[in-house]
Amino acid sequence: MSKLTGYIEGIGLIGPGLTDWPHAIRVLTGELGYENQATVIPAPTALPAAERRRCGAIVKLSLAVGYQAAAHAGADVAALSTVFAASGGDGVNCHEICQMLASDDRQISPTRFHNSVHNAAAGYWGIATGAMAPSSVLCAYDGSFGAGLLEALACVAADSIPTLLIACDTPYPEPLRTTRPIPNEFGVALVLAPQQTERSQARIDVSLAAGTATPMTDAALEQLRKAIPAARSLPMLQAMAAREKARLVLDYLDSSLLAVELSPCA
After folding, report:
1. Which terminus of the chain has a lower count of CB atoms within 10 Å, N or C?
2. Domains of the chain and CATH, by start
């Protein structure tokens, strides 16, 4: 595969002990020590009240980081093409449906059903933003962030329009948690553009690679990177925070990883 190229114009980030991108910059550059605390997800105020009550954590997280990245880029949320990537879906809703199916009362509400589908976050994004731009949704298990990054950059290359990547993961309750032990919520969003502009933070070039993924030097952040699929983005985010030219390797598939080259824009 030849390189896919784009320009990062905006970043959104929410995770355990990470409230937003400005706060994450201070943590990832070592200005602040990392403290692994429960993820705090803002209320999805862009949604109408009825939808706000019905949506789950993965929808709220997707909206929060997506709006953060768009604001950082000075972009119109309604005009951005979108790519949503998640290793699973709404874990709590999945648990509740499984419980109902295992009981004598198997009447599943329409709200539970429509929140169970993998593209629920994309649907709520359309409701919140009024966006009519192209949108795609994908899952590649632990490689979902890498798959989403490739898809978003492919959209940028093919359509020559800015694209918003939103990659999020949320936990499952027990007993599913034992099988899929995602410890906390983590979401990251990137606004990617086809050409450099005055808003561009860095040029990004991505290609397939072999070898091993680049680890985090901080032990707690490395544990976070390995524990949550969307957090596989952390080495790239650390390089962005430091505004350094970097070449690193991100997890993708068992047989292939991603080589990522970052060059800060002046």
Report:
1. C
2. 4-264 (3.40.47.10)
